[in-house]
Amino acid sequence: MLFCQISDLHVKAPGALAYRVVDTAASLRRCVAHILALPQRPDLVVATGDLTDFGRPDEYLHLRGLLAPLPMPVYLMPGNHDDRDALRAAFPDHPYLRETRGFIQYAIDAAPLRLLALDTVVPGAGGGALESARLAWLEARLAEAPAQPTVILMHHAPFPTGIGHLDRIGLADAHRLEAVVRRHPHIERVLCGHLHRVVQVRFGGTIAASCPSPAHQVVLDLAPDAANAFVLEPPGFALHLWDDAAGLVSHTAFVGRFDGPYPFHDGDTLLD
Ligand SMILES: [Fe+2]
Ligand SMILES: [Fe+2]
Question: For residue 254, how far is its CA from the centre of ligand 1 (angstroms)?
Answer without folding.
Answer: 17
